[in-house]
Amino acid sequence: MELYKDPTRPVEERVEDLLSRMTLEEKAAQLCGDLPGSVFTDGVLNEELLKEKFPNGHGRFTQYSMLGLSDPEIIAKTSNKIQDYFVNHTRLGIPVALQTENLCGYPAAGGTLFPAQINLGCTWEPELAREMSAIIGQESRSVGISSAMSPVIDVSRDPRWGRTYETYGEDPYLISQFGINYVQGMQEQGVSCIAKHFLGYAVTQGGLNTSAANINDRELYEVYATPFEAAMKEADLGSVMANYGEIDGMPVIDNPRIATELLRNTMGFKGILTSDGAAVFRTWATYKMAETYEECGLIAKKAGTDTEIPVGNAFRQLPRYVQSGDLDESVIDDSVRRVLTVKFKMGLFENPYCDVEKLKEAMANDEKKALSREIAAKSLVLLKNDGVLPLAKKTKKIALIGPHADSLRYPVSGYTYPAYIEMLEASLNAKSTTFAGITDEAERLKKEARDAEKEGKKKPDSGFAGSMFSILPESELPKISNMTKVLRDMNAVSLREALEAAGEDVVYVRGCDIVDPSTEGFAEAVQAAESADVVVMAMGGNCGWVNVTGGEGKDRQTLELPGVQQQLLEAVTAAGKPVILVLYGPGVFSVNYAAETSSAILQAFMPGQYAGEVITETLLGDRNPGGKLTMSVPRGVGQIPIFYNHKNGSGFNDTNNMGIAIFSGGYVDGPSDPLFKFGHGLSYTTFDIHDMDIAVREVPTDGMVEISVKVTNTGDREGTEVVQLYTSFFGAHVTRPVMSLQGFCKVSLKAGEEAVVKFHLSTAQLGYYNENMEFVVEPGTLTVMTGSASDNLSCKETIKLTGKKVNVLGKRSYTCSTEIC
């Protein structure tokens, strides 16, 4: 037996043995991706095409879950056939990685659907991320998938950006905790995570997807790299995906200062850096970095990018650059080592196949769905309540108004099975769809075809991009061309249906569509409001690839409610009845009018198929809301960027401007602070966070800060509170944030019950770049604050960090452990 085939040998030895046996062409093949449609003919896997296209093996097939849109058995059996070719019919038998988008569930038939990640973040329970991703990983591996293009751990500070819903918000510490747990859960199931988007993808110019990010070196590492480094160090993250955009004049995949110096030398990452979909092509076609697409591949490789997806047509040409002396083969070797290491670690050499016989029991079941429902319920954030909630059951006539009130689809996230089905329906009906990477690849093929036609050459194979669903047999299309049926099969009910099922007296009027300018339904909506005791307005946006207000490449100029929804809200409010506004969609809205006039506001985002049920339970008091915001809600786009942990002297929390009017800051046409603050979220009960105690008031710069604080449920019903720990530092020779989240703990208490929360904060979590760009913890004054939100910190004490400065680069702490007594 060859050494690399021996599972008892260390991974490093197996990798080196296999690498030593590989030809240059076999090495390059491991760095390339392709789309599954490239080896399908009329919806059937063409094994002759496999042999023709991949004689030297292959790295990965991406967007692979498309094969399973109609039936998990189809994709599982296909996975086995594909692996059989690579394992048994290529010279070295290296399995191929099968990868897909896994953010909110295995996105195909039989998978468990989960809420959007913005919802998951609002639970402030990272453990739920681990439970969720373990389910996603287990279901994915059951059909052969071994690589997940998730989680998204971008620090998101611009709500105009359409992919905000994929993130865990604006705070590096909170994001780190969810990222660590997500990666651990997924990779424990033998599915390697590709965390994205490295780096600064969510803070682009104008909030536009893939545009330039203006980030300095200090902030790049301290803020945006922290969640990635945390996942690398604490969860052994397998891969990262590069940001499409540019930083400091160079796309990230071409920027050695980020792809090598920061990622490898500073952060010590040993895993794979992959391009995003068609990112190498974009550096040629969009950024115009070189004369040819192939040369752009060379630039990316030399900068530190390991693999090219979805189709590696530039990286396939790397051997000729080695042969010409333009690229050292050792550069390719380094990348191949990383690719092989991930494949070995995920057990792909020992277990490349699916167990089709056990497939049915491996997919979604009631227990898994219960977790999805739990996350949905815990994610709801009560932004405002004047006492109208909870509603007394079966005592009031409810006017239910708005475009989301009777929709099954709008509460469901993008990058999910229903979203793919929606895209399929649109494709079959010749409607426009957008899918970054895939549409870019289609454009590349069109351009190559035009050039080939001019030169009289053979046109290139269109592959998957030529027909997105060519991999599906015609006989399967009827099974998946009805999105409503797909959602019903997932137990989805609308808010209207859930309220009616609860026995409530409901009069429903749509009122308007999400973006349609028609106001024809206004009069009926007002009439319904006038006839009711209370009004529930279900409003906001939607997400996906077809006719949406948010998503990938679907960014916003305004944060107002879309279409004529604001006018409808004002018309209905004028009826004089209490209004409860339920907000849906992939981002936040500047609902200044509602904050003043509505009796209650419930932020729902996209809770998934159980949205109708859990929102109904919350409105009626069967559930007590406990979610907290993971981002600041601006009063308007003029405040962007706005986030709680801004630098001293540079934001709404700046309260020390020497009392001189010219320095006082603030806008002349409105308040400076957010409409709703980071960490905010109300309950139907009340809590008191009090009696904070810090064991030692002088702590060495390499020590531990021990903090305890009491939390009491002072209301009349059971509920949950998130005790949040913040610090600020005085004495650095550089400007530091006004405050930073350092820990949190969610506590469930019965009425009148009290608990003590203990935080164990390592000073190694407090590092920053000093004036000499050393990443250190320095002596000075540390202010410690605890409370229920960034603007509701009831306890505040100061301690001294003493001793010499300590360099913590490579020795950082990322998690503040907690306990409840």
Topology of this protein?
Elements: H1 11-21, H2 24-30, E1 33-34, E2 40-41, E3 44-45, H3 47-53, E4 60-61, H4 72-88, E5 97-100, H5 117-122, H6 126-142, E6 147-148, H7 172-187, E7 192-198, H8 217-224, H9 226-235, E8 239-242, E9 246-247, E10 250-251, H10 256-266, E11 272-274, H11 279-285, H12 293-303, H13 318-323, H14 329-345, H15 359-362, H16 366-379, E12 381-385, E13 397-401, H17 417-428, H18 438-455, H19 463-466, H20 483-489, H21 495-501, E14 505-509, H22 522-531, E15 534-540, H23 565-573, E16 579-584, H24 592-597, E17 600-605, H25 611-619, E18 687-694, E19 698-700, E20 704-713, E21 719-730, E22 740-749, E23 754-762, E24 768-769, E25 775-777, E26 780-787, E27 795-802, E28 806-807, E29 817-820
Parallel strand pairs: 1-4, 4-5, 5-6, 6-7, 7-8, 8-11, 13-14, 13-15, 15-16, 16-17, 19-27
Antiparallel strand pairs: 2-3, 9-10, 12-17, 18-20, 20-23, 21-22, 21-26, 23-29, 24-25, 25-28, 26-27
